[in-house]
Amino acid sequence: MSNGVKAPPHSIEAEQAVIGALLRDNDAVDRIGDLRAEHFYLADHGIIFGELMRQIVAGKQCDVISVMVALSHKVQDAGKYLNSMQQATPSSANIARYAAIVRDKSVKRGLINLGRDIADSAANGPEESGAMIDQASSRLEQLAESRVKLEPVRAGADMAVHIGEIEARLQGGTKAISTGYPALDERLSGGIRRGELIVLAARPKMGKTALAMNVACNVARDHSVLYLSMEMPRSQLHDRNLANLGRIPLPHLLQPTKMTDQDWGNLTHATIKVDELNLFLDDQGSLRMLDVRMKAKAVKRRAGLDLLVVDYLQLMEGDGDNRNAQIEGITRGLKGLAKELDMGLVLLSQLNRKLEERPDKRPKPSDLRDSGSIEQDADAVVLLYRDEVYNPDSTEIGICEVDVPLCRQGAPGRVALSYIGEQTRFAPLDRSWMPRTQERPLERRRRGLAEAL
């Protein structure tokens, strides 16, 4: 340029070729991916492309004349320019390549603008550096997103591939990730499947963090796991893991003067077990969806990622006018992330305290706090209940009822696990256990009297 200022990245030829190809062949729109009007460098090209898309989406036959009529008052010499672009593009065969060039140049311009804005904000902005980094990361993530336009596949044509998938399942080639608890795996149709969002919910003191960490340790023996804890610091998670894996009472670890010789030996073995796990821990609080994405992707690059555990939903920050809208955005984002990274995702959640007012305090999916989107977005919901928390004289002390009321790939049902509280450890329970039905107070008193006699 004559003033010595270099123009931002762009390709007039590629933009013209996309428009010319669409004018020649409207069906070529299926091959341009997520190209949008704002990706074009020249304003007139963006206007023309926008009108082309409007007519094509409306099902109209789009050509030089129809576009010229629509844009005669917006683009100077529209007819002559449209005709020249059509004539300069012999066919639509390479439109996907032309569209990719236009999109790539647009992303590069966005990176330049982002760099300038970051420099200006850092030099003159009143915000703290942490807020600036968060804003910049969010904008960078938006630039990095590239939606791939998938074409529908005829079911019959795809069946051969799916039969191969079934055969691979039969031979153990592809299978769900086991939680380490056979009874729970059975309710989840084999375990945790990649791309699935499983919500694990309970009232406080029921052991949801303990069960989530137990599952994480079980999975981390053969897979890579990331545990995001917004409630407990890593030191507390380490204590729980050592108590669980070493069969050591947690109070002994918190007060080492109580440790026995056997405890010290078990501690050594537990430390070795932890070192053998492919388990990553993160205790940053108040995570946003962007933070979760970046942490998960970082572990995915370093060591692969098979399971992500988020503890817990209500401590995350979100965008929206109210908490329901924020939760909806978070659960939808987590479900999308599970599919994108091809991993299982266990999301811990609180339950509404109103269930405490019911005679039967066993939780239901409707007790999930803040938003119906939790239940809607989940592939499975797992609810925990320990009767001894509410009834000190319970006949089921040490038993945790694990209810799976919703499972898209399986049948709902309830199983039980043994809970060793002092070791924050869950263990498989005798398969003969049967769930009890809730008794009325009078029936409970009658049963207690009969047992006493």
From TrEMBL:
<dbReference type="InterPro" id="IPR007692">
    <property type="entry name" value="DNA_helicase_DnaB"/>
</dbReference>
<keyword id="KW-0639">Primosome</keyword>
<dbReference type="Pfam" id="PF00772">
    <property type="entry name" value="DnaB"/>
</dbReference>
<comment type="function">
    <text>The main replicative DNA helicase, it participates in initiation and elongation during chromosome replication. Travels ahead of the DNA replisome, separating dsDNA into templates for DNA synthesis. A processive ATP-dependent 5'-3' DNA helicase it has DNA-dependent ATPase activity.</text>
</comment>
<dbReference type="GO" id="GO:0016787">
    <property type="term" value="F:hydrolase activity"/>
</dbReference>
<feature type="domain" description="SF4 helicase">
    <location>
        <begin position="170"/>
        <end position="433"/>
    </location>
</feature>
<dbReference type="InterPro" id="IPR003593">
    <property type="entry name" value="AAA+_ATPase"/>
</dbReference>
<dbReference type="InterPro" id="IPR007694">
    <property type="entry name" value="DNA_helicase_DnaB-like_C"/>
</dbReference>
<keyword id="KW-0547">Nucleotide-binding</keyword>
<keyword id="KW-0235">DNA replication</keyword>
<dbReference type="GO" id="GO:0003678">
    <property type="term" value="F:DNA helicase activity"/>
</dbReference>
<keyword id="KW-0413">Isomerase</keyword>
<keyword id="KW-0378">Hydrolase</keyword>
<protein>
    <recommendedName>
        <fullName>Replicative DNA helicase</fullName>
        <ecNumber>5.6.2.3</ecNumber>
    </recommendedName>
</protein>
<keyword id="KW-0347">Helicase</keyword>
<dbReference type="InterPro" id="IPR036185">
    <property type="entry name" value="DNA_heli_DnaB-like_N_sf"/>
</dbReference>
<dbReference type="Pfam" id="PF03796">
    <property type="entry name" value="DnaB_C"/>
</dbReference>
<dbReference type="InterPro" id="IPR016136">
    <property type="entry name" value="DNA_helicase_N/primase_C"/>
</dbReference>
<comment type="similarity">
    <text>Belongs to the helicase family. DnaB subfamily.</text>
</comment>
<keyword id="KW-0067">ATP-binding</keyword>
<dbReference type="InterPro" id="IPR007693">
    <property type="entry name" value="DNA_helicase_DnaB-like_N"/>
</dbReference>
<keyword id="KW-0238">DNA-binding</keyword>
<dbReference type="InterPro" id="IPR027417">
    <property type="entry name" value="P-loop_NTPase"/>
</dbReference>
